[in-house]
């Protein structure tokens, strides 16, 4: 089935999930929206995150998506359940797959969770991990300085190395064998995080894990696009912020160049009102 898969994030972070989708599911059409103008979501109130996320969901629904990926841990933490109830297509967030992978890879039961303030405050990773294995020893750490570094394309700079080292100091040498990158922006800082924590620590990319689940969901619902389907695939990227900055980061991160269009917050609000009015 050649209807697209929809992805949303507060900004460019969801591209780390899309990158994995392009690798594992190259036949699939993709529509992405990043709310860069209102990023970061991490420090925002639950009400704001829920409202903004729902606006992006409505936008993606106008594009006739067949499956929705909430490619943002912060939005998943506070809005996934509500969105699942509201829409009629399959919806998947990034937290359950990330937590499942953490539980799978740890050998000594000591897991670190890195995330935004919103994600860590929600306790959703902790709940997911402990529901599967109540004996896990978990340290959660909010890393509020990471997303602004990524959004301003400074992930590969001496400043990034300094900030990552300072932020992760409290969890270094605590015997963690597995650390979950519980924010889809963080894989862009992965090399630096790995250097600081040491090569023996297994880093889990929650987005990467999510695409394995998306693949299962597509098969389960019999909606995957097969290699012998001749219809052309679509790749559309939208941002509420600067298309140029978005494209610079996307070109740096993804294997193929993409087209980026701007969608205004006014447009998102208008679509939301139209959807509410039915
Ligand atoms: N990419 C995001 C996440 O996975 C959001 C970060 C933010 O906007 O603070 O949580």
UniProtKB/TrEMBL annotation:
Q: Which PROSITE patterns does the UniProt entry name for this protein?
A: ASP_GLU_RACEMASE_1, ASP_GLU_RACEMASE_2
> Among its keywords, does the record have Secreted?
no
By its UniProt entry, which Pfam families does this protein fall under? Asp_Glu_race (PF01177)
Q: In which pathway does it act?
A: Cell wall biogenesis; peptidoglycan biosynthesis
Q: GO annotations under biological process? A: cell wall organization; peptidoglycan biosynthetic process; regulation of cell shape
Write the record's keywords in alphabetical order, separated by commas.
Cell shape, Cell wall biogenesis/degradation, Isomerase, Peptidoglycan synthesis
Q: Which GO terms describe its molecular function?
A: glutamate racemase activity; identical protein binding
Residues given in the record as substrate binding sites: 9-10, 41-42, 73-74, 184-185
Substrates-to-products reaction catalysed? L-glutamate = D-glutamate
| EC assignment | 5.1.1.3
Q: Where is the active site?
A: 72, 183
| Protein role | Provides the (R)-glutamate required for cell wall biosynthesis.
User: According to its UniProt record, which protein family does this protein belong to?
Assistant: Belongs to the aspartate/glutamate racemases family.
Record's protein name: Glutamate racemase
Natural source organism = Aerococcus viridans
Q: What is the lineage of its organism?
A: Bacteria, Bacillati, Bacillota, Bacilli, Lactobacillales
């Amino acid at each position: 089935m050649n209807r697209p898969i929809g992805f949303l994030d507060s900004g460019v972070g969801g591209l780390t999930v899309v990158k994995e989708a392009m690798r594992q599911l190259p036949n699939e059409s993709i529509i992405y929206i990043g709310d860069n103008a209102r990023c970061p979501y991490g420090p925002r109130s639950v009400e704001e995150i829920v409202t903004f996320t729902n606006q992006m969901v409505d936008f993606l629904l106008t594009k006739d998506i067949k499956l929705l990926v909430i490619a943002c841990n912060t939005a998943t933490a506070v809005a996934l359940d509500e969105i699942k109830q509201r829409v009629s297509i399959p919806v998947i967030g990034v937290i359950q797959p990330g937590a499942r992978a953490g539980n799978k890879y740890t050998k000594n039961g000591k897991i670190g969770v890195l995330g935004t303030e919103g994600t860590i405050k929600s306790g959703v990773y902790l709940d997911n991990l402990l529901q599967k294995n109540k004996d896990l020893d978990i340290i959660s750490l909010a890393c509020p300085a990471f997303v602004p570094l990524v959004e301003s394309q400074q992930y590969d700079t001496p400043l990034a190395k300094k900030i990552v080292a300072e932020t992760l100091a409290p969890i270094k040498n605590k015997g963690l064998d597995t650390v979950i990158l519980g924010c889809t922006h963080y894989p862009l800082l992965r090399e630096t995080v790995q250097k600081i924590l040491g090569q023996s620590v297994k880093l889990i990319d929650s987005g990467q894990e999510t695409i394995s689940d998306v693949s299962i969901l597509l098969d389960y619902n019999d909606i995957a696009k097969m290699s012998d389907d001749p219809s052309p695939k679509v790749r559309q990227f939208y941002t509420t912020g600067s298309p140029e900055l978005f494209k610079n980061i996307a070109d740096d991160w993804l294997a193929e160049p993409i087209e980026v269009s701007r969608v205004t917050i006014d447009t998102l609000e208008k679509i939301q009102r139209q959807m509410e009015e039915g």
